[in-house]
Amino acid sequence: MSRHHTTFRKAAERIRESEFVVPVFIVFLLLWIMSMFFTAEDYWTSLLGYAGLPTKAGFWWTGYVVAALPSVGQIASGYIALALGWDAKEDRKYTVISILIWLLLFSIDAFTDMTYRMSVPNGTSWQIVLTAVFQTVGIFTIGSELSFVVGFGMTMQLLPEAVAQSMTVGTRLKSRMSRLRADMAEMSGGTYR
Question: Which residues have C-beta within 8 Å of that of residue 119, sequence separation ≥ 6?
Answer without folding.
Answer: 52
